């Protein structure tokens, strides 16, 4: 099989249907004599005559008939494999997998609507990603882009539009002494243990799960969690508190926990992130739609 050109096989199959070198060449858009040259090349490769050129019409030799019987099904299978791969590739390029740590709302939902309206053949598939390591799904190709809680470090990732900049909030049980306060200071965080996100990058944990206050007071940590719902359930049971982005507060839908703004900490923000070098055509389109939604 090594060295055989697909064009030679196609020429042989078409000639078997047409029984005429000229018509076979026309169907394949070959120059005059091109079909005959391809057939000679194929015969040289297989080592035996495939066609009889002695009559007015070209006919297959007995060896050619056997070759046709074996080649036809194999060629159709190969063509189906190539066509199927092309269809899957086209479908993949029309679908953008967007990783979210919650539901699509606000500017993200607006950007998705604009993305799909601009190209009705395109769709955004929402993929739920964990708090524990949202960047793994990007690096391993499980999603094409993701909306994550910043900061992001790593030259392999691109940070696009940033949004939802708000004070961070300490999440405590609704009956906790801090729950009724309109705001707490960063030093108050030493009064309740934090429930950190397990396996998150160190640079991210330093911002969202600090271990010491600015004045040097220790912030105790409980066992980590992988998902937001796990953490909120622990908080509601009185097992600790979580430090979350301000935007998360509006989508929890729970009355057994309270979100209290924290002063003295950097504000939280969300961002659209994708792998550097991504060739998915939908990524820059979605980024532009999100930028427009933020104006």
From TrEMBL:
Pfam families in the cross-refs: HTH_1, LysR_substrate
Coiled-coil spans in chain: none
Domain HTH lysR-type, first and last residues per copy: 4-61
UniProt keyword annotation of DNA-binding present: yes
Record's keyword terms, sorted: DNA-binding, Transcription, Transcription regulation
Keyword DNA-binding: yes
UniProt-listed PROSITE patterns: HTH_LYSR
Family stated for the protein in its record: Belongs to the LysR transcriptional regulatory family.
PANTHER family in UniProt: HCA OPERON TRANSCRIPTIONAL ACTIVATOR HCAR, TRANSCRIPTIONAL DUAL REGULATOR HCAR-RELATED
Protein's recorded name: LysR family transcriptional regulator
Species this protein is from: Nocardiopsis codii
Source taxonomy: Bacteria, Bacillati, Actinomycetota, Actinomycetes, Streptosporangiales
């Amino acid at each position: 099989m090594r060295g055989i050109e697909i064009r030679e096989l196609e020429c042989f199959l078409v000639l078997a249907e047409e029984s005429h070198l000229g018509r076979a060449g026309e169907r394949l858009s070959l120059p005059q004599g091109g079909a005959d040259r391809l057939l000679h090349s194929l015969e040289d490769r297989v080592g035996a005559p495939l066609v009889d050129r002695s009559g007015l019409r070209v006919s297959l030799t007995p060896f050619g008939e056997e070759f046709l019987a074996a080649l036809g099904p194999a060629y159709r299978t190969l063509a189906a494999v190539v066509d199927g791969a092309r269809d899957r590739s086209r479908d993949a390029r029309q679908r953008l997998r967007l990783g979210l740590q919650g539901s699509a709302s606000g500017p993200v939902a607006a950007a998705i609507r604009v993305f799909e309206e601009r190209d009705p053949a395109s769709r955004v598939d929402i993929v739920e990603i964990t708090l524990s390591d949202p960047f793994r799904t990007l690096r391993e190709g499980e999603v094409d882009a993701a909306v994550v809680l910043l900061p992001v470090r790593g030259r392999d990732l691109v940070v696009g539009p940033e949004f939802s900049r708000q004070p961070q909030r300490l999440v405590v049980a609704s009956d906790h002494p801090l729950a009724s306060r309109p705001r707490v200071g960063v030093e108050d965080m030493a009064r309740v243990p934090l429930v950190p996100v397990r396996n998150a990058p160190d640079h991210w944990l330093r911002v969202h799960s600090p271990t010491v206050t600015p004045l040097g007071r220790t912030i105790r940590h409980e066992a980590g969690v992988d998902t937001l719902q796990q953490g909120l359930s622990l908080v509601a049971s009185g097992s600790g508190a979580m430090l979350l982005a301000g935007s998360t507060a509006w989508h929890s839908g729970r009355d057994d926990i309270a979100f209290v703004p924290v002063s003295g900490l950097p504000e939280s923000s969300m961002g659209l992130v994708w792998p550097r070098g991504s060739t998915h055509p939908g990524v820059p389109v979605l980024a532009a739609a999100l930028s427009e939604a933020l104006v």
